[in-house]
Sulfhydryl oxidase
Amino acid sequence: MSSIFLLLLALLLSFQSSSSVSVGSRSILRVVNNKNNGDQHDFAVDLNATNFDAVLRDTPATYAIVEFFAHWCPACRNYKSQYEKVARLFNGADAAHPGIILMTRVDCALKINNILCDKFSVSHYPMLFWGHPSKFVSGEWEPKQEKSEIRVIDDGRTADRLLNWINKQMSSSYGLDDERYENEHLQLNMSDPGQIVRAVYDVEEATSTAFDIILEHKMIKTETRASLIKFLQLLVVHHPSRSCRKGSAEILVNFDDLSPSDMWSANKEESVTGNGNGAMGNFQICGKDVPRGYWMFCRGSKNDTRGFSCGLWVLLHSLSVRIEDGESHLAFTAICDFIHDFFICEECRQHFYEMCSSVSGPFNKTRDFALWLWSAHNKVNDRLMKVEASLGTGDPKFPKIIWPPKQLCPSCYLAGSSRIDWDHDEVFKFLANYYGKMLASLYKDKGLLGDGGTNRSLVEDLAASTNAVVVPLGAALAIAVASCAFGALACFWRSQQKNRKYLYQLHSLKNI
């Protein structure tokens, strides 16, 4: 009996070990303050060979630091607290300076990381490297290399020395005592149109947050199921983020399994949507392997301002200018129904739906829907302007305004009037450029898109989900056909996923 018990225990430990490798890296990295050991002072992001490239490719940070260490090394254990003092300034939801440096760690004592550590010629522990995140992706470093865009940090033995080294590289003046929002020189997006490029990360964060809220509050009901499907179809075709398009397609293909139509059964509903831990909770709609929890374009000057609501508005505007003419009313109803069924702020939800209900006829043009949403947003701003002024709850650096201001679009305003008169043709041109081309330009800057709007790797990534992601479907068929296509593609998608999962598990087992 004892030998059987020991055998079962060994199998259980083996299973737990292999599972720890195959768990999605986003679930580990999303909240960097909650590591397995419960240490709330862990801000550096733990990487390994399976997620190294993905995290560094997709991070919004301008620079990255990678610390190669070994968990058995006494010097590494002693250095960890010093490294974390600096990491807390740049990583995590309460970072004083988010989006600038992603600070990471790789444990070279783990077999899974042997090849990765060899590629960077790790000769001692701890060893720190500095560079643009994209340079680490599929990269390597040699000691005798004359020119390399990855540099060894040669003076980072303490937190003070490491931060001094960083400040010299960046001509900055960061301090270890910096706190969130203190000494922060925010670039106001109302005067810098280029800032919208950074909003692609906020759109991803807002999309993920919206679906986290849906799961946490168990909002997928019999009566709301259809509106969620319609909104997912819209995201699959027109979301500005390739990761969110792919993740939305994956959820939609598996939707009947994740959220069956007979889920009104209390027990089944709990298993599907309970606290995001059920089957649906295992899917990450934007599939990001980078730690989230802060805002780039939508960051307010106070903790409780902007953020999610700003990111959601940017998403809606982006969708409104990406659709085809024939899709405009389908997109309008999808967005209105989604906000009505899933936006948890009751007053905001009702106010938005009242504006939706006031529309008398269908939209026939992209321009008409985009301008309606723009007008609706200004009505919301006008209402909140007065409320926030009376209660003092607004963001002092980002007060509500009628948008866009003249600094961003002088041609949007008609001359010779004491009140605001809009040139709607110019407003639409501005919206299409600002929320369309400019918002997506970051992907081109990072080499993820080619001249035609996509590249081979993106096509291969999304081929199993839907070609609508790469070649948008025309007119009113776009969303309707997408739902039919998903049924035909489901078997192929699932078989692909099973094959990938099998090969991944096999690879993981070989490295244990």
Summary: Strands lie at 45-47, 63-69, 101-107, 127-131, 151-152.
